[in-house]
Amino acid sequence: MERVYNIPLRKSVSKSPKYLRAKKASSVLKEWIAKHMKVDVKNVKIGEYANTLLWERGIKSPPHHIRVKAVKDEKGVFVEILEAPEKKVEDKEDKKGKKDRKKKEDKKENKEKKEEKEEKKEDKADKKKEGKSEDKEKKKEEKKEKSGNNEEEIE
In this structure, are residues 48 and 81 in contact, taking their beta carbons and an 8 Å threshold? Predict the structure, then answer.
């Protein structure tokens, strides 16, 4: 069963102290829905968007009224603001599958990162070796040139 309500919050909220008004607004919303949908207050769930609308302006100044859509099922009543986008209900198995996929992806990413680090280390080591061997070759060539120059001078 689905119903749309415009719930007045001003009277009950204005009676409570300013530092408790948004909390009071959420409890009044639950009580009002429980009364009109004929369920227990424990079985009323406030949706994410309705909750953010209640708390949007801070704890001291909640809205004076709120327009909501209440959906009643076997579990209880779910309350959401009228303009809220509908969420897709996912099975627990789908969520587990997503978690497993995320874990696998994370493992792959970690392996790739490790491999990249190892490659960088190897490249650095190769460059150092190449640099050292090039330096040695340059030094040998310089010595030969110097010794060649010396020999030319002697002659």
Answer: no
Q: What are phi and psi of 34, to 5 degrees?
A: -60, -40
By 3-state DSSP, what share of the chain in percent is helix, strand and coil, each rounded to 5?
A: 65, 15, 20
Domain boundary among 81, 109, 141: 81
How far is C-alpha 11 from the chain's CA centre?
38
- Expressed in angstroms, the distance from the first to the final Cα of the chain is 113
Pair (134, 115) in one structural domain: yes
Cα distances (angstroms) measured from residue 60 to each of 1, 51, 55: 34, 15, 9
Residues 109-154: tens digit of each pLDDT: 888 888 888 888 787 777 766 666 666 677 777 777 767 655 555 5
Give the C-alpha distances (Å, rounded to integers) separating 9 from 17, 23, 61.
14, 12, 11
Do 22 and 77 sit in the same domain of this protein?
Answer: yes
**Cα 65 from Cα 62, distance rounded (Å):** 9
Tell me how far apart the alpha carbons of residues 20 and 49 are, in angstroms, rounded to a whole number.
20
**Whether the predicted model's global pTM rises above the 0.70 cut:** no
